[in-house]
Specification:
Elements (H helix, E strand, L loop, with lengths): L4 E5 L2 E5 L4 H11 L7 H15 L8 H5 L9 H12 L21 H8 L5
Antiparallel strand pairs: 1-2
Length: 121
């Protein structure tokens, strides 16, 4: 294992290492679900954490990850953020302006009025 990163779960630090190409292929579709509040989204978040932790502990099971004591929901996003960055994905905390030459989102008439100080006709 070349790089060792850690994530905090239940107030405890857990190490994880480098991902294989196969890991990244499995992780990519899961990252698309992390913002989903459904059971599928929750399972995706758990699977992402498990896949990271098994890089340091190949015998770790999903059931063991689910059984981490004192786990707190606010720990999920920072852990997934670290995993995403370690896997090579670009993480955006806030939307950025579009690159030069690309169109910016169009404001609704109400937004345009508040920006120009006039009311829509």
């Amino acid at each position: 294992m070349g790089n060792t990163n850690t994530i905090t779960l239940g107030g405890q630090e857990y190490p994880f290492g480098d991902f294989t190409l196969g890991d990244i292929e499995e992780l990519q579709p899961l990252f698309a679900l992390i913002g989903d509040d459904s059971r599928q989204g929750a399972q995706a978040r758990t699977t992402i954490i498990w896949m990271a932790l098994r890089t340091a502990n190949p015998n770790l099971t999903v059931a063991q990850v689910r059984a981490i004591p004192r786990f707190k929901i606010p720990e999920i996003l920072p852990a997934i953020r670290k995993i995403a960055i370690a896997s090579g994905l670009e993480w955006q905390d806030e939307p950025k302006d579009p690159p030069a030459g690309e169109a910016k989102p169009v404001a609704s008439p109400g937004e345009q009025a508040s920006q120009t100080g006039t009311s829509p006709s």
